[in-house]
Amino acid sequence: MARPRKFDEAKVKNALRDVFWQHGYDGASYADIMSATGLNKGSLYASFGDKRALYQHAISDYNRENVSPGIAMLRDNTLTPRERLNTFFTSLVNAAETREGRWGCLLCNAAIDQAPFDQDVEETVSASLARIRKAINYCVKDTPAADKADLIWTSYFGGHVMVKAGYSKAVLKKVRTQIVSLL
Amino acid sequence: MARPRKFDEAKVKNALRDVFWQHGYDGASYADIMSATGLNKGSLYASFGDKRALYQHAISDYNRENVSPGIAMLRDNTLTPRERLNTFFTSLVNAAETREGRWGCLLCNAAIDQAPFDQDVEETVSASLARIRKAINYCVKDTPAADKADLIWTSYFGGHVMVKAGYSKAVLKKVRTQIVSLL
DNA sequence: ACAGTACTTGACCATTTGGTCAACAACAAC
DNA sequence: GTTGTTGTTGACCAAATGGTCAAGTACTGT
């Protein structure tokens, strides 16, 4: 059954996600991708397809490893809605002070620089945003903020724009406080 | 005193702003820029500088022509705060259904795809975001939403992410309703 | 040991990228 | 009309881009 793969697929996918997360689609060249994954173009093409396909893999990976845990937390009934929202927006506060944080949110980045030019990306991204929207809705549905779910939702992504713009932790903390005070 | 310029500087700057607004920094090639402005590289270099400088001009133009009027409106005391916020978020609703609207917000786009890699862009963009923040603060300072200004602020930019992701008018209308209901 | 198969490598390709420059053109001052 | 200055043009460049492929390699099954 032929020569086995030399690389760890999960690690390569993580590396792929990180490169695109950090540099965006246009900003990530094959030079970047190759050095991040440790594979060269031939192998990448054989295993995953062209650059667009690599990007899609990156988004899928982000959904699985970064988005889904957040959604699960928002739906975790062992915590109060307030605790859940607080945790959710704390990830934003922390983003403002870590190196990875400055990468922002891959969904947000993809929405802005690729969704208008690639229908597959648009669909994947908006589906994922919709999942988050529903999770927030679920989280606040029995609270005084039940009718403000979409406001909370958009504000989360707006916060990621602020992180990318270089705003400090303090500003994001204010946003978190104001969100939590809704319920 | 020598040969006069053949082009209308204001028109060229508008064209410049639109190209970068629509395609982003990396996405806009000189081919795009030349056909949009009607000038060729030599003239662009002589008049404005390199590509980075062109981008800076685009952001300045956006600030002057697109951001400042909104800020003036938010500070217009002849309107009620509710009217002002409603108008501000209506621009978001309208964005969701026009072609230009799908370009999103240039500040938002610049924050995401260039701010982390270009300190000048970061400074220009975050200064502009700060102006908007102050205007919203001013607008709501004597209302029940006085302590929710930053929430309104981030939510506005989050809304632009949704527009880019392809969300319909209906969703943005919900956000607007929820914002206005804060005061 | 051999053959078959799948993975890996790096050289190679056409195209596009941002950027430069020498030649030319159009005006103002005299 | 001549001169000096500035604007415009398009050919040109090196570097980088995404993508391909023939050759070599490492494993499995027999």
Mean pLDDT level of chain A: 95
Output the number of helix runs of chain A: 9
> Low-confidence parts of chain A lasting 5 or more residues at pLDDT below 50?
none
Largest interface: A-B, 43 and 43 residues
Taking all Cα atoms into account, the compactness measure Rg of chain A is: 18 Å
Number of strands of chain A: 0
Helix and strand content put the structural class of chain A at mainly alpha
Which secondary structure elements does this structure contain, and how are they paired or packed?
2 copies of one chain form a homodimer.
Chain A lengths: L8 H19 L2 H8 L3 H8 L2 H24 L6 H15 L10 H8 L5 H22 L8 H17 L3 H12 L3
Helix pairs in contact in A: 1-2, 1-4, 1-6, 4-7, 5-9, 6-7, 7-8, 8-9
The structure holds a DNA duplex (30 and 30 nucleotides).
Description:
Two copies of one chain form a homodimer. The mean pLDDT of chain A is 95. The first copy, chain A, has helices at residues 9-27, 30-37, 41-48, 51-74, 81-95, 106-113, 119-140, 149-165, 169-180. With 183 residues, chain A is an all-alpha fold. In chain A, helix 8 (149-165) packs antiparallel against helix 9 (169-180). Chain A is 73% helix and 0% strand. Chain A has nine helices and no strands. Chain A binds chain B through residues 24, 26-27, 102-104, 108-109, 111-113, 115-117, 122, 125-126, 129, 147-148, 150-151, 153-162, 164-167, 171, 174-175, 178-179, 181-182, and chain B through 24, 26-27, 102-104, 108-109, 111-113, 115-117, 122, 125-126, 129, 147-148, 150-151, 153-162, 164-167, 171, 174-175, 178-179, 181-182. The structure holds a DNA duplex (30 and 30 nucleotides).
